[in-house]
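WARN  no MSA supplied for this record, continuing single-sequence
INFO  ligand: 2-acetamido-2-deoxy-beta-D-glucopyranose
INFO  echoing inputs
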Amino acid sequence: KTAKPPKAKARVKPTAPPSQVHQPASILTRVVARGRFQKVPDSLTLTAGDTLELRCRGRSVRWRFPAYLEDEDEGRLRCVIKHFERHSQLLVVNARAADTGEYSCWSFQCRDSECQDGEDRMGKAFIFITGQELFVPTEDYYEVVQLRTNHSTLLPCQVTSPLAQVTLHREFPPEEVAVDGLDISYDVKRGFVIHRPRPSYAGSLFCLASLDGMRQISTKYMLIYINYPSSAPKPTVGASAATVRAGENFNVTCTVLGEPEVMVDFTWEYPGQQIGRPPYSRERADLARRGGQVQQESESILYVDEARAIDDGLYTCSATNLQGTTTVSTRVRGPNLLPFSLLPFV
Ligand SMILES: *[C@@H]1O[C@H](CO)[C@@H](O)[C@H](O)[C@H]1NC(C)=O
Ligand SMILES: *[C@@H]1O[C@H](CO)[C@@H](O)[C@H](O)[C@H]1NC(C)=O
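INFO  complex generated
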């Protein structure tokens, strides 16, 4: 059986006083020179061109490293991993700005094909590779970023030195964007995090880094604001009549009450569908005030003209928004094939 990487979980603060908390030694070390090892701190800064050699203690070790390193480069892997009996080695020769990121390893204990892992068998470090490039290079000249209602958003302008001063800027009109640590904050290992997206943040933004007289700008981020619903729609459905007679017109209405400016798509399934019965539907969306709150009422009405026997059955409406789809049905009793009084043998 293959062991899976440990799931990311929130760190729980120890309840015992710090002196009594067992602090396991990290299984991750760095080889600084032949035969010389160094405990790896939470973050470490190397210079472009350096060699990064990490060791992880354990018999069965897995590594995680910046995704970029997994790409082949000039026919060879930039990051070479070798497993030994009691440890594993990760080697990056001639490190570059793009190699900046988190490196982690964990070791398994496997017995009778059952593998276990735990916090004490894990090590990680954030490694900055500084040089002429202040930002970790990306492939794209600009990136489209969706800002969604109530969802925090990352602008991943990651720097290659923890000492770089980084500010956020708008392209048109050119101005610096205020970073108050509350609505927007900066994390040297990740970039800018927009905690409370607003429509006014939309537009073209970039990061500016300065260090030792160097100033560089990041990839541009094209921010698009999207009104994002808090949940999947909750439709209700009802027919204009529960029973219809032959030749009568009827309609089935599917209604969703939700947040304003959130698109809802409707699709229908109905008994006459297989034979290509052509009902038609009409949609509308209006704002409605309910209990002091403005809500959007979205509706789809399916019209069936001149009811026939085939129209008897279940009318199903599926309403979809960005959070999901909800399906509701109602039953319509259609006209019998033959009137009861004309059925033979009764
Ligand atoms: C956003 O969060 C606020 C407060 O938590 C909540 O009242 C509101 O319904 C949420 N809106 C959406 C669209 O998720
Ligand atoms: C739906 O059908 C009923 C009965 O034929 C009709 O009275 C009603 O106006 C129709 N509703 C709409 C929105 O057309």
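Residues 284 and 299 are 5 Å apart (CA to CA).
INFO  checksum written, moving to next record
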